[in-house]
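Quick illustration, no need to memorize.
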Amino acid sequence: MSSVFSGLGIAHQGRFTRLKWHRLRRSLKDPLFSAGVMMEGFRLGASTELDLRVRADGGFVVLHDEELEGETTGHGLIRETLPEAIRGLTVLQGGHPPILSEDLATMLRTAHPDALLQFDVKDNLKAIGARGVDHLADYFGSAGSSIIVSAADLDLVVAIKQRLPGLKRGIDPTGKLVEIYRGQGLKAVEAELRDDIAGPTEPDTIYLAWQLVLQAARDGLDLIGLCHDAGRLVDAWTFNLKNPDAGFDEAEAHSFSALMALKPDQITTDEPVATERAWAAVAD
């Protein structure tokens, strides 16, 4: 029986908050990084996220770990493996072949205009090099607003901005902000986030852990509001229900309601359909 819930997002008090399909999943029961789920997201116009690792030839593959062992039937470092070898592998969780960047570019042509695909690039600029950035430009330079690129290495984000100015960019300062919060306090967090927003990456979206967002709000700093005042969007990550079939428990309902009150533009989850359904059950 089809569900009335699509997992695309939540309408609340005149706003629409997107639900991002973390690791190309509508549910934790879905296989990891599945082309089938990605195509469904493209069809519906969903916001989805995948991880990219650079290959030996400068192209990319949709995987999280730097070694093939953890996620596939292969062995060795991905950055030392050619695409022909990767094509012969299967992803352990799901049994499907890994998605190569060339395949991804082909599938992206079918995407709904509202679809947004986040490339979370796991390697740094040194590992990727000019050849990798050129590969992204060759295959995704015309994708425009359909893609947002994020990376821990801000130098890589800047390099992509210079080579592919049409792509959206995102940064995640969460780890750094948490450490500053512990050691220097909330005023230092505010100053650091303002510096990041004004920095050379020129980010469209700021990714912040939802726990950090709520703790800062309780202590008097609205991180989402700060980003909105600077014209940036905010993705609050990663909110997963303990029991997706049962919906929110009392603590989850309280936390999610508090998060929604702060008006995030997007919430990352491995359970977008269950999250939408759970919110419908508790929202006013």
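The chain has two domains: 14-170, 172-284.
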